[in-house]
């Protein structure tokens, strides 16, 4: 069968693109290799607990946020409940314990009270995030990182660390993260607050999947694309089969093809002449970091033992300046900084009545896990969980006794379920001066909608990418 659009991958980028295109009357086929849609926007259930795989908080949606328009157009607001997160984050080190509000004015005032000698730098920081000055190309700094920028406007190292508390939302090193990218992403949290999806991000993924089907699109799960068909330098369709099985290959044909998957993976599947061109376009790019997560089911709401914060970033005492962050992200787990998210601080809908769920998360890499034997891998997961539970107990006394169930997900887990190279959760690392991928030499019916595209990673980046991709296809067809 032939479709107007074939979408490879059912992450939020592919689902958003598919929903918009189906709404506009295009025949859509979406093929997802996992047994459920969503990519990182999924949940899983154990012993009555629903565990959120990827979402701690999503910026907005707010009036000035493009997601507001997208969600309204696709009737997301009428079907998905967004819960406002109570504060941005709590930052804890041996020298500082401070809770940053989402409101930029309140955050600025609090930071000036705690760090009065850097008041002008705090003003400059929030100005950069909320209303960056328009400068000519000659005035713009070359290849500036957020690390370099903070060094230029702020003196106090602890203040820099506080401002970088949630750096792990974007990258693993402030000195190789684009200031421009960081400013847009971080500014969105301060401009419109943040939300959690009641019931978990799977609710949004399932809704968008059902929206495609409702508008006569087709969603095939548990099938993987293994190649493309082409004719005269143009892609004509895809070859796919059932995931994890030796099954007969199938073909589907489409006028337009959207890749909601890692660009390096897509390159490997393309005909040689096209593969070479795409690989040349992304040759200077590298996958970003991955994550390690420990998912917890608790016997009670943690407010009963005195925890009153939604997300807390615990920075190790060895980090005295932002120059220490990258090395710490590769340090022993006994010293590595980590985040703890307590979903019981909102009406998350993830746990049975009276109970709650939470998660520990830290930057991690496949290199520390891939070469282990099965027994070594299992033993390391157990050891890592024990280390972090002990560390968390020191910060939240009594939490160990509250743990009813826990499970560890590693970068290898991320890689297995998303097929992302190195288990990268945010696509390509957003380095300073990173150019967009040059697609001029690629077939004009091949499109990219994912964290690996120009809008970057995270839930918002993927959603924007999918919607903009759909709009480009619609404009293209209208012009044709």
What does this structure look like?
The chain has 480 residues and is of the alpha/beta class. The chain has 2 domains: 2-41 and 200-286 and 430-479, FAD/NAD(P)-binding domain (3-Layer(bba) Sandwich), CATH 3.50.50.60; 89-197 and 290-364 and 370-409, Polyamine Oxidase, Chain A, domain 2 (Alpha-Beta Complex). It is 34% helix and 22% strand. It has 15 helices and 19 strands. Strands 1, 2, 10, 11, 12, 13 and 19 form a 7-stranded mixed sheet that branches. A 7-stranded mixed sheet has the order 8-7-15-16-17-14-18. A hairpin with a 7-residue loop joins strand 12 and strand 13 (250-259). Helix 3 (104-114) packs antiparallel against helix 4. It is globular and about 65 Å long. The model is unreliable at 134-140 (pLDDT under 50).
CATH architectural type of the largest domain: Alpha-Beta Complex
Largest sheet: 7 strands, mixed
Amino- and carboxy-terminal Cα gap: 23 Å
CATH topology description of the largest domain: Polyamine Oxidase, Chain A, domain 2
Which structural class best describes the helix and strand composition?
alpha/beta
Note the total helix count.
15
Task: Output the radius of gyration.
Answer: 22 Å
Number of domains: 2
Question: Which residues form runs of ≥5 with pLDDT under 50?
Answer: 134-140
What is the 3D form?
A: globular
Task: Count the beta strands.
Answer: 19
Strand content: 15-25%
On the 0-100 scale, what is the average pLDDT?
95
Question: CATH class of the largest domain, please?
Answer: Alpha Beta
